[in-house]
Amino acid sequence: MLKIYNTLTRKKEKFKPISDEQVSFYHCGPTVYWTQHIGNMRAMVLCDLIVRSLEYLGYNVKLARNYTDVGHLTSDEDEGEDKLEKGAKRDKISPQEVADKYIKVFEQDIKDLNVMPAEVKPRATEHIKEMQEMAQTLLDKGFAYATELAIYFDVSRAKNYTRLSGQNLAKNIAEAGSGEVSDPNKKHPADFALWFFKKGKHANAMQTWESPWGQGFPGWHIECSAMAKKHLGETLDIHMGGVDHIPVHHTNEIAQSESANGKKFVNYWLHNEMLVVDNEKMAKSSGKINSLAEIKDKGYDPLALRYLFLGAHYRSKQNFTWETLDAAGNALKKLRNEVTEIKSNIKSAGEAKINENLREKFIAALEEDFNIPQALAVLWEVVKSDKFINEEKLLTILNFDGVLGLKLDELKTETGEIPKVIQALADNRQKFRELGDFNAADEIRQEIENQGYIVEDTPQGVKIKKK
Ligand code: AMP
Ligand code: ZN
After folding, report:
1. Residue 398 in contact with residue 347, Cβ under 8 Å?
2. Whole-model pTM?
3. Which of 29, 286, 320, 441 is most buried per CB count within 10 Å?
4. Cβ pair 320, 38 in contact under 8 A
């Protein structure tokens, strides 16, 4: 029985999808105005692990992950500049060219991390009609009002507005940001824009559309409400995003969707914790950010980063250091060596089956609020076990890797044919190199060559080949 921690109820709940046919899953995607950092990448990998776990447990998931390409201001509330415009000025291209450029970067990055693409990838600028319709419904039902500068959602009209965060409204506002309000006609500081007019500080907005109320552009929160409704319906099984979205973005999504549709918006709210550096959230504003490109440039395999992410539960913070990435890279290398060894020791295809005991353990880990670190431990248990034959081991490992996504099925046996003794010599040589004892390292290289193999130092690490 799958249990999921629901932010809305603050409890682990038994998972019951609306339909047996499909699980509807909305994930707040990136604002595509620059290269996402590896904190954002952690959010994507964690979502991927949850989607893969659901699929493994027999659910058919329809995942929608949006691209925000308009309306997300530099503060998560209604203040600051549109992030896409900021990107356009910086890169000296149009906002849509900025979006195209960074969507490409994002899609390559998540591909490198073996994150499965979403089934639906809605772009905000392609759903302006749906956003306007929802805003109109909210106006018609008296949940919204217009000022000279914008159409606002009236939070005093929403039922239990702060229930997701569990905060009282004053605290919610205090934590929502600077409290700066540039529209004196806003009734309440927490009221948020559904539609900004091309006026005031947005008089020079670069991306605007006609609307029944005047030229302008949508607010960030209405985008997700409208796109989720269009692609997944009025009530979703799962909605996921980072914990940073609880007090403002997701609180506002609930208020809009439930007020407009008159129905519960989401049954299970899932929130991933942050990747941190020196106990501070990895964020552009902190300056302590790293991109996947940087990690690749330093010679790391992107899957080493994925392996690192497997090591912490999605509701736990994870600290990033280069040492932990090194350790993850080494563990992945060890795992690959073990698996290639197992592969190369398989003599015939045989009639092996997956090991049911360990499969049950693996499932139990997933069913406990997607305990991936535990699931990874079960994978290692398979690798290390001497209780069953290689064929059974390999099948079980590859089956589990369907969730963990380390591409173990792509390992070639050529490297597996490297005898253990050669591998051990190469490992020793590496240790001497790290200690700076290059004479000793060279002696070992000679010994390896004498035995018919050559070692090569590549940016991806040491490669061993037959002479
Ligand atoms: P953004 O483009 O800023 O809207 O962020 C995209 C996603 O990445 C959101 O779901 C954020 O919650 C998430 N995110 C941002 N920073 C981090 C971080 N340091 N660790 C994990 N997730 C993050
Ligand atoms: Zn969203």
Report:
1. no
2. 0.87
3. 29
4. yes
User: Do 429 and 402 belong together in one domain?
Assistant: no
Q: How far is the CA of 317 from the centre of ligand 2 (A)?
A: 21
**Ligand 1 atom index nearest CA of 29:** 6
Residues 379 and 82: their CA atoms lie apart, in Å, by: 45
**How many whole angstroms from 427 Cα to the centroid of ligand 2?**
47
Ligand nearest to C-alpha 245: 1
Give the whole-angstrom CA distance, residue 125 versus residue 68. Answer: 8
From the annotation, which residues make up the binding site? 28, 224, 249, 253, 284
Inside any domain, residue 4: no
Our count of domains for the chain comes to 3
Strands 192-197 and 216-218: antiparallel
CATH of the domain at 50: 3.40.50.620
Q: Report pLDDT digits (tens) over 333-371.
A: 999 999 999 988 886 656 778 999 999 999 999 999 999
| C-alpha 291 to ligand 1 mean position (Å) | 13
Tell whether 249 and 153 lie within a shared domain: yes
Residue 411 corresponds to which tokens in the numbers above? 């390992």
The closest of 221, 147, 137, 226 to 188, measured between CA atoms, is 147
267 lies in the same domain as 159: yes
